[in-house]
Amino acid sequence: MRLERLTARLRPCPAWQAIDLGFALARAWFPALWALWWCTALPLTLMVLALAWLHSDLWLLALWWCKPIYEAPLLLWASRALFDERPRRGALPGMLGAGLRPRLLPLLLWRRLSPRRALVLPLLLLEGLPGRAHRARLRTLAEGSASGWLTLVCYHLEAILWGGMLLGLYLLIPEGLAGIDLVAALDDSASPAYWISSACYLLACSLIAPFYVCAGFALYLTRRTELEGWDIELAFRRAPPPPAAVLPALALLAPLLLAPPPAEAETWPDPEAARARIAEVLDSPEFGTTREVELWLPVTDPAQRGTEDAEDSWAATPPPWLAGTIQWGLVTLAAIALLVLVRALWRERAPRLPRSTRTGHEAASGPHATSPLDHESEIRRLLDADDPGAAIGALYRASLERLDRLGLSLPPGATEGSCVQRASARLPRRIRVPFAAIAAARRHAAYGDRAPSAAHVERLLSHWRRWRGRTGAH
Amino acid sequence: MNRHPREHAEPIDTLRLRETPEGIDLGLRVAGPVPRALALALDFLIRGGLYLLLLPLLALADLGIGLALLAIFAIEWFYPVVFEVWRGATPGKRALGLRVVHEDATPVGLPASTLRNLLRTVDFLPAGYALGLAVSLADRDFRRIGDLAAATLVVHDERPATRRGPASTAGQRPPPEFDAATRAAILAFAERAPALADARRIELAEVLTAPRGVRGTAAPALIADWAAWIDRVTPDGRAA
User: Fold this and answer.
1) How far is CA A53 from CA A56, A58, A88, in A?
2) What are phi and psi of B107, to 5 degrees?
């Protein structure tokens, strides 16, 4: 074993990192390992195809069971490549049969389902210990290794690649063509879809196999490195030899060393030249860069300010009073704006009534400035002027005033409807029915623009006179 | 077998170095699909638990269904973002010792986290993150599409190393020709020697000491002395 020729850096590390190292190895050697896998698997595939009487499920099961046969050559190849000895073509046929060696038989029989298969393979193939020693050695090597997890995860990786390939094929076949029946691909072993699915699985196996074998190999190597200190041995071998060992070598080389050495090694540069050289080196961009930065700074030197004032025009340095005026002007504007805002807000908060209702209500609830007779003469005057709309309005206001006097409190801004509602809740029928009629006529005149006929107003007026007369007797 | 010339001068490793402006190399151990898939599964279970907590909302008829739908939307889209920005990783990732960082090793921010989680919809295609798996297997740093777009990495969190206490003896000064890598290996040997088999310990120590004339059980003892000298603590408490 020549550790100096290792092509991978081995060190004691946790099992997960060992597995990752194995994946890195497989990635570096992938084309060769993949081709080697098919070199063994392809003949066997065709042979089993004939033996399985074209039963695709049996065919796949047999190929799956024979996995160690294809994996052994990969491991043998990897073990040579690790020590930088890529096997030549001539050595390949001997290597292909590696999986059929008698000592690998357990792997094909009762060890086939062992979760530690990746770790057992290097032990059987590279060490080949007899029964009891093998078991003890396996116990030592398997300690702390995650080989069970490795097998479990690799089965899943195969399944994911297989599912991905199958689903990808299914999705990528255009609709017009005969697609793959996914259910048949899983279920019906006689269907062509099942054959495609099996081929996909075989391809997935071939893709994962190099990674699985190399990860198992890396677990084995890492454990041995830990147990045997391979990395330490490598570092010790690379340690510089002791001077005593160097001296005889120097004696042999003496004639060469005594020859006139190169001129530049002999003459030291003089300090001046060296200093110039150092300055030159320090000027190079690696040791720093120059940047131009523009910034404003206050003028602190009055002398400097004076010269600038004299030189600059009025526009460049405006007189100080201008700035003060602008400042106070802005402050005044801000104060005015604030006042306007406050006033607008105050107005917004004050309650606002529709002007027409307020005046109507004031007329209704105001002091008894007008007597009922005045009302009546006013209504009559409007009727004579052929303005029944204004007349019914006057009649409505007069009746509101009447209701107010009867003790019916009407809120400011109450509509005709709410007045009728209140009246009907509080007042007797003989008042509220005529009032409702007046309110309805008023509503039609005011909002519907349908003025009542003069006769209707006359009728309402006579009703009103009647109930006013009765209530007035109170 | 013949020896081909090396294709990669650099050994294969999952450690990525990022240089800070101060010239210090920070090591990031990128995380591969296996721990990330397990973290995803754990997060899925946790989200499922949160959805179960929403079930009582359904008793409120239409209002409850509306609230539950809003909650599901929030959990589905913001659960990873919130935890990544707040704690650096979702609970599932923390359980697996993973963390999300920007490519330059700074903690992930809101824009990058939002972008990488929005693009989960693309990574998910056509089913079960198949596209994301294929992309992360092909990428050198195991990044999925969301990581590529947002320039983020999922890395193994650096667990604080259990340091040995300072050595009880003053030790012995190691030969001056030892470089930093050799000194680090000497310290590592002193730390891991108890776990090594006796024969292997002597064999390993002799690799370094045999050229200097020390063999047998004296070899590990000599290296332990050197380690003690390197690991000595100065009076003001700083490591030398």
Assistant:
1) 9, 9, 37
2) -60, 150
What are the Cα distances from residue A41, in Å, to A106, A170, A370? 19, 26, 121
Q: At what angle do helices A56-65 and A30-51 cross, to 10 degrees?
A: 130
Which residues constitute the domain of residue A348?
A: 322-352
Asked whether the beta carbons of residue B207 and residue A233 sit closer than 8 angstroms, the reply is yes
Helices (H) and strands (E) in chain B, counts: 10, 4
Question: Is B64 contained in some domain?
Answer: yes
Domain match, B28 and B113 both: yes
Q: Are A15 and A59 contained in the same domain?
A: yes
What pLDDT score was predicted for residue A246?
A: 58
CA A317, A320, A326, A330 torsion: positive or negative?
Answer: positive
User: Model-level pTM?
Assistant: 0.66
Which residues of chain A does B13 touch, with a Cβ-Cβ cutoff of 8 Å?
Answer: 8-9, 21, 24
Whether residue A313 is contained in a domain is answered as: no
Which residues of chain A fall below pLDDT 70? 244-269, 302-318, 350-373, 469-474
Say yes or no: A402 and A436 in one domain: yes
Domain count across chain B = 2
pLDDT single digits (tens) B100-154: 999 988 999 999 999 999 999 999 888 889 999 999 999 999 999 999 999 999 9
Residues of chain A contacting B12 with CB distance shorter than 8 Å: 7-9, 21, 24-25, 28
Are B152 and B170 in the same domain?
Answer: no
CB of A229 within 8 A of CB of B200? yes
